[in-house]
UniProtKB/TrEMBL annotation, chains A, B:
InterPro entries: LysR_HTH_N, LysR_subst-bd, WH-like_DNA-bd_sf, WH_DNA-bd_sf. It comes from the Bacteria. Keywords: DNA-binding, Transcription, Transcription regulation. Pfam families: HTH_1 (PF00126), LysR_substrate (PF03466). This is LysR family transcriptional regulator. It comes from Paractinoplanes rhizophilus. SUPFAM superfamilies: Periplasmic binding protein-like II (SSF53850), Winged helix' DNA-binding domain (SSF46785). Residues 1-58 form the HTH lysR-type domain.
Amino acid sequence: METRELRYFVAVAEELHFGRAARRLGIAQPPLSRAIARLERRIGVSLLDRDSRGVALTEAGAVLLHEGRAALDAVEAAERRTRRAVPGKPGLVLVTKAGAAGELLPKLLDAYAAEPGAVEVEVLLCGVGEQERLLRDGRADVALLHLPFDSTAGLDVEELTTEGQVVVLPAGHPLTTRTSLRMADVSALPGLPLPRWPGADGTYPDGPGPEVHDSTQLFQLIALGRASAVLPESCRPMLGHDLAAVPLADAPHVTTVIAWPPHSRSLPLAGLVRAATRL
Amino acid sequence: METRELRYFVAVAEELHFGRAARRLGIAQPPLSRAIARLERRIGVSLLDRDSRGVALTEAGAVLLHEGRAALDAVEAAERRTRRAVPGKPGLVLVTKAGAAGELLPKLLDAYAAEPGAVEVEVLLCGVGEQERLLRDGRADVALLHLPFDSTAGLDVEELTTEGQVVVLPAGHPLTTRTSLRMADVSALPGLPLPRWPGADGTYPDGPGPEVHDSTQLFQLIALGRASAVLPESCRPMLGHDLAAVPLADAPHVTTVIAWPPHSRSLPLAGLVRAATRL
DNA sequence: GGCGGCGATACCCGGCGGGTATCGCCGGCT
DNA sequence: AGCCGGCGATACCCGCCGGGTATCGCCGCC
């Protein structure tokens, strides 16, 4: 199976429409129909049910969509990492959520830079839930993730730190006089709903809170009295004077981990992980 | 990057010889040279150093060899799993080392078969260290692995059982009168060296013991008085009357786990894992 | 200095990936 | 009922690329 065929199939399977898929791929519709038909013939199973008015995935088609995306990611990763393997380029790309890992990241970079044989580390900041994808398709080599929010499925992992969480409120809110709160106190604050973060697919869950996708948005909404948030303790240094944080006694602890694709064998990566675990 | 190019490059990188690689691929040498040259041009980095008398991998070439193998496995896996996704075929392929998981496997298969919605499970028995490969390239969906011997890098895992180890000796050996032994007692038994198993690459480590690759071989060698072995307790039912087992007090415990590729989303797999964890 | 091995180059052919034009089918609108 | 429009399949054509053979250029070694 050639990657072109796989890309074509994924496009059709996502659009469920040959015409749109062809436009997305920058080709005409007939060659696309042919390519899919040949792919089905070669694999020996039917992937799409074309009945009049529309296209639907067969069971096998759903499997190929899933597995094919992973395979295309792996091929892309191979190409990207190869392109970056020429001497002189930054040796490692580290990705983490923008605004997270406040103090940890500079400490880690300093500690690693002091190691013998350290290479240049490029830092990539991404949105919620994007790290795993970046690791899988080769745009990044290593990530800082936060359990239990991020998935570590299929990644190798070392734990770095564990911390409690705090609730972030507008300065002057009545509850800010308390020294400790419980989840029940903040899960349904009148007028201060918890925000909704986008899922891995970019869509927002249903609920009362405002939609946010970065911490700047979030902090502004809290300062305006439109939301509250439950965040790891390490967010405290980022809060302006218009925000206040109160510890949560019973919130789940947040574990920061360093994660990388399991087949990685690069020496610089090993060095970075070693530096991280020694912090 | 097309999978054909990737296959060609991997062949050349493994053979370090265009002629042999071309023969292995079933094509002539000139098209292979051209394909590699175009691949290098398109990626924009040089992958091979051709000096007179031979070919060597560049740094980037080594990266592409590594990542490319993983990518080719992923593509193969996509195709194989798709081909198997047509109704009527065995729904799951389970792989384990031949001779291991003695009692556990039938119990697991029975328990799963009793579940509602259970599908047919094909059992594949393979040699040491092959399971991970079979999972990655789609020939299997789920594996029984034994920690700390097998690597679970990049796999999702549930622990099933933990057991101690025993030393297997020829019946009548003086030590078989003891009720318990320590590793130090058996690590250097005169005339009964521990055997050497092949590594993931199919080669054997250096050492005094005989080379073995399955348990039948091993048991026969022990019965002949040429070797001894340290194995999990569950091997006891497989031993004939010409072999004896003595518990080892300080051997590392062996944990049997059920493992699967982390991106799997299949319902039958979930059912099998559930059945396994409930055993 | 000739020979042999190896990768690169030159050149040719057929198939496949791409295009345009058109068909066949079906659902919906009038 | 009949026409129209949307959509995937089919027919047909072209140019490139993947494959082949023949040969060259380079180098190490008798």
